[in-house]
Amino acid sequence: MTARWRTAGAVGVLLAAVALPLPGLMRYQGPPMEEGFMLVFGERFLAGDVPNRDFLHLYGPGSVWVLAGVFRLFGASLAAERMVGLAQQAGIVGALFSLALPWGRRAATVVGLLALVLILPPIGLTALAWNGAVALGLAALAVGLAARRHADQTDGDGARVGRLLLLAGILGGLALLYRPDLVVAVALAGAALAWGLDRARIGRLLAGLALGTAPYVVHLAMAGPGPAIEGMFFDPVFRLRGGRSLPVPPSWNHLDGFLQRAGVLRVVRWPLPAPSTSQQIFLWFFLLIAAAVAVAAAGVWAMRRHPTEHRSRVLLVVGLFAVGLLPQAVQRPDTTHFAWVSCVGLAFVPIAILEVARRPLAKLPPGWRGLVAGGAVAVLLGAALPFFTYRPYADLTQQTFGRNAFGFPIRRDGRVFYYGSPDAAAAAQRLVADLDGRLRPGQRLLVGPVDLRKTPYSDAFFYFLFPELTPATRYIEMDPGMANAPGSGLAGEVAAADWLILSDTWSDWDEPNDSRVFGPDAPNRVVARDFCRVGAYDDFFYLYRRCSAPS
Q1: Rg of the chain over CA atoms, in angstroms?
Q2: Which end of the chain has fewer CB atoms < 10 Å from its terminal CB, N or C?
Q3: Within its chain, how far is the Cα of 147 from the centroid?
Q4: Runs of H (alpha helix) within 401-521
Q5: Where are the chain's structural domains?
Q6: Angle of CA points 378, 140, 4, to nearest 5°
Q7: 116's torsion region: left (phi>0), alpha (psi -120 to 50) or beta?
């Protein structure tokens, strides 16, 4: 079998691993706010709304623009949004596979599989900006390191090196267009990538970076410099943290995050001994830090021992990228943020083992070395983190074949969203039917919690189900300390709405942070003064209309 066919076989293994849970993922519950606002943001952009100016958006505009383009081509749908999410997940797995290939196909395949079971379960196929940014950042490293390999060859094609470096810079810039806070990872890895290049080639890399980030000029022009800087910098860095932070490190004997506590309400059987859920989160925190530091340290060691080897630079660049992702795990230590970070560092630990343990592993046949190193990490994940890796992956695969399906549809006019509670989904379906028979296109809808003094979360997917209604608030994504802050304007937005959908689902939200702090009561007073209740739906949701509106 030729090398090309063996590589194709390795890629086939990864594609099969992605395909197995895919039908289950397409019908799986979506995070009501996160997937809800990604569905809404792309459509609102097509309607003329601009991130930061017209609705709260904490990241770069890249993910919104891409979703808007996909919706323009294929229509706004949950399936279209999740295919974008799938492309982002596949991009992470594929880029890591490519980066690990110098150590052999089997090692690269194991790295790809480890990344898959780490990144896929926590939030499914939701097309969040972080996953897109990491996929683009890793692609930039893969292309840039290919350029370095050619540049380090005495007979390398200079023009090709320049083109690859330009492309690597563009991809890195696009990663920052999705998530500006990826700048630490991009800068650390980029510096290691460029180290030793001549000025002209560094210039090509920086020129590409400038081209990739140039669309920010368009965004600043559309949103305005003030709202854009406030939305992408001041809001996420200074205003969001108080209401979203969690203890560092996570607690050993109980769950700190509300969504983690909600997640354990659905328990899928796991046949092997394992730490408790809170203990696994605690262990994961330290494992992801240790993994990132270990890969970077192995890269430094390899560069000192074998400074001219391409593999040494790959290990260093990827390790520094992983270290640059660590702030994301520290700012909110929950399982989603851990997955976003450890999909690089933990997945690449087998490569660090192969590099540092060259001599002991040399006793094994070449094809077995990657399997042994990867198997050690796979066993570690199975022993320490099975509830967040293998168990959910197996559960999703079973759902593909019709077993233990989890995700209950809420439908309207060809649109669908999958909720995690059958009772809440049934209640939401009745609300949808009631509002569907009463609304007039162009009216304004506000979705929020029953008590608008606390805004920890929102069922933003309702906006997606009613595209002919205009969101009455810029807080499509509701965050504590922001939507309910003094001077946020929420009371005025409630007063300008025609319809309210208020949810009691998140009233018990309780985390050890400022999300427990009540804001002004003015929005609640507006509800009591101006709105009449149309329906109550099993104590999950309440529908209100403006009392002065014609019946």
Answers
A1: 24
A2: C
A3: 29
A4: 422-436, 461-465, 490-495
A5: 10-397, 408-546
A6: 65
A7: alpha
Both tokens of residue 119? Answer: 């990144």
CA 530 – CA 316 distance, rounded (Å): 61
The structure tokens 């267009």 sit at 177
CA distance 275 to 286: 15
- Report phi then psi at 453, rounded to 5: -75, -20
Segment 78-105 shows an average pLDDT of 97
Please give the C-alpha separations between residue 204 and each of 137, 196, 216, 491, 521, in angstroms, as whole numbers: 17, 14, 20, 51, 55
* Residue 163 one-letter amino acid: R
pLDDT (tens digit per residue) in 162-196: 999 999 999 999 999 999 999 999 999 999 999 99
Coil, strand or helix at 412: strand
Structure tokens at 426: 């049934």
Angle, helices 62-74 vs 158-178, to 10°: value is 90
pLDDT band at 156 (very low <50, low <70, confident <90, very high): low
Among 139, 28, 12, 20, which residue's Cα sits nearest to residue 82? 28
Q: Nearest to residue 126, comparing CAs of 234, 42, 209, 236?
A: 42
Please give the backbone phi and psi of residue 478, each rounded to the nearest 5 degrees, phi first: -100, 130
Contact present, 138 and 96 (Cβ < 8 Å): yes
Residue range 354-374, pLDDT digits in tens: 999 988 887 888 878 889 999
CA nearest neighbour of 110 among 357, 388, 378, 507:
378
Structure tokens at 227: 């709202």
The Cα–Cα gap between 32 and 482 comes to 19
Tell which residue, 448, 449, 456, has the closest CA to residue 476. 448
The predicted-structure confidence for 192-227, as pLDDT tens digits, reads as follows: 999 999 999 999 999 999 999 999 999 999 999 999
CA distance 418 to 126: 12
What is the bridge-based pairing of β-strands 470-471 and 444-449?
parallel
Q: Dihedral (C-alpha) 124, 126, 130, 132: value to the nearest 10 degrees?
A: 100
Residues 6+ apart with CB under 8 A from 358: none
Contacts of 1 (CB under 8 A, 6+ apart): 9
Longest dimension (CA), the chain: 83
Tokens 């898959």 belong to residue: 116
Residue type, 499: W
Helix ranges, 54-128 (H): 62-74, 78-100, 105-119
Pairwise CA distance, residues 21 & 12, whole Å: 15
Reference 460, options 37, 126, 30, 38; nearest CA is 37
> Residue type at 190?
G
Confidence of residue 152 (pLDDT cuts 50, 70, 90): confident
Residue partners of 440: CB distance under 8 A and separation at least 6: none
